[in-house]
Amino acid sequence: MTKPFFKISARDGEARTGTIHARHGIIETPVFMPVGTQGTVKGMTPAHLKEIGARIILGNTYHLYLRPGDELIASLGGLHAFSSWKNAILTDSGGFQIFSLKELNRISEEGVEFQSHLDGSKHFMSPEKSIHIQNNLGADIIMCFDECVPYPAGYTYVEDSVNLTYRWAKRCLQAHQRPEEQALFGIVQGAFSRDLRKKSARQMTDLDFPGYAIGGLSVGEPKPLMYEMLEVTTPLLPDEKPRYLMGIGTPEDFFDSIERGIDMFDCVMPTRNARNGTLFTSRGKVVIRNAFYAEDSLPPDPECSCYTCANFSRAYIRHLFKANEMLGPVLATYHNLAFFINLMENIRSAIRQGTLQQFKKKFLSSYHQE
Q1: What's the rounded mean pLDDT across residues 60-73?
Q2: Which residues are catalytic?
Q3: CB-based contacts of 18, cutoff 8 Å, min separation 6
Q4: Please, what's the b/e burial string for 194-223 (b: 16 or more CB within 10 A of its CB; e: otherwise)?
Q5: pTM of whole model > 0.90?
Q6: Domain coordinates in residue numbering, the chain
Q7: Fold classified for 6-267
Q8: Which end of the chain lies in a sparser environment, N or C, as judged by fewer CB atoms within 10 Å?
Q9: For residues 276 and 304, what is the distance between their CA atoms, to the nearest angstrom?
Q10: Is 295 in contact with 358 (CB distance < 8 Å)?
C-alpha cells in the first residue's frame, strides 16, 4: 500500500476533496464507485468505464467466492487480471449478502454458516475466511467482516452486534496477509443508536485502520435518521483518513453526505435503474419507456456530453427498450454512470473553489422529475 494513503487537498466547510493513493492508481475524492458485483459492471466494458472516468469499481466477495471461486481467480492473476480492469478495485466482505439471506444463515462467535443462493450448498464464512478470499482477489481496498443489523432492531441486539463486529475486526487485522498492497477498512456499525454508533466508532478507530466505512444505513430508515447517525459518527472518525458511506447513491444523498465529511460512495442504483429504463439527468429522472418519449429527438440529457447523449435520441433508446434489444440497457447504463461520475467531478471542483453550497443549490433547483 502506497503511503501516504490519503491526502486532503481542499476543504469547504466539512466537505473535503483529496486523493487516495492505491496500488492501481490515484483516486480523487469524493468519489462514486460503480458496483461490479460478479467481476463486471453490468453492461459496461473496462474500456467504457475508463472512458467515463471511473478510477475504482467494486467487486463482491460473496458472489465471487461462490462463482467462479477466489482460488481460481487467484490462479489467473487476481481480479484485476481476470476482469481486465487496470485501475483500483474495492471488495466488500460478503457480510451484507450473507446476512440478507436471513432464513439461510446461522450466526456464531466464529462466523456465519449460510446456504448458497445458487444451489443451496452449505458454507461457512468467518472473518479469517473473508480476508483470505479478499487477499486472493487482490483488490486495492478490502473490508472487514461485520454483522449487518436489520432495521428495526432492539438495543440489546445492536449492542451485542457492535461488540461482535469489533471482535471480528481484530481478527480481520490479524488474518490480513497483504497489508502493504491492500488497505483494510474498518466498518462502524451501531444501527440507529447514538451511543452505540459512538461506541463502534471509538472501537474501530482504536484499531487504526487505513480507512473507515459507515455501514448499516439506508436500510429502510427515514432520511433524517440516516443523517442524524452520520452527524454523530463522522466527526469521531480520523480526519486524515478516508470515510466511506456504504450503499448510498442518489444525487441528493451525495451532497448531504459530502457536506458531513464523507469521501466515498457506492450504489447499484445507476446501473439497476438503467436496466429498468430509468435515466438520471440534470432535469431529474427520465423513465424512457414512457410513450411521452416515443418521438422525442432530444438526447437523454441535453446537458450531458457522454457517448449516449452525443449520439442517440430518447426516441431511439425507448425503441430499444420496447424491442428488448440489449443495447438499450447498455446505453442507459453508460449514461447513468457517466452522469454520476461527472457529478462527483463537479462537486470536487466546487469544493476546491469554495462554492459547494452555490453548486448544490443550482444543481438541485433543476434536478426534478420530468
Answers
A1: 97
A2: 92, 266
A3: 6, 7, 8, 9, 10, 28, 29, 242, 263
A4: eebbbbbbebbbeeebbbbbbbbbbbebee
A5: yes
A6: 6-267, 274-366
A7: TIM Barrel (3.20.20)
A8: C
A9: 20
A10: no
Residue 14 grid coordinates: 466539512
pLDDT bucket at 3, cuts 50 / 70 / 90:
low
**The C-alpha cell that represents 292 in the structure block:** 411521452
Name the grid cell of 166. 469489533
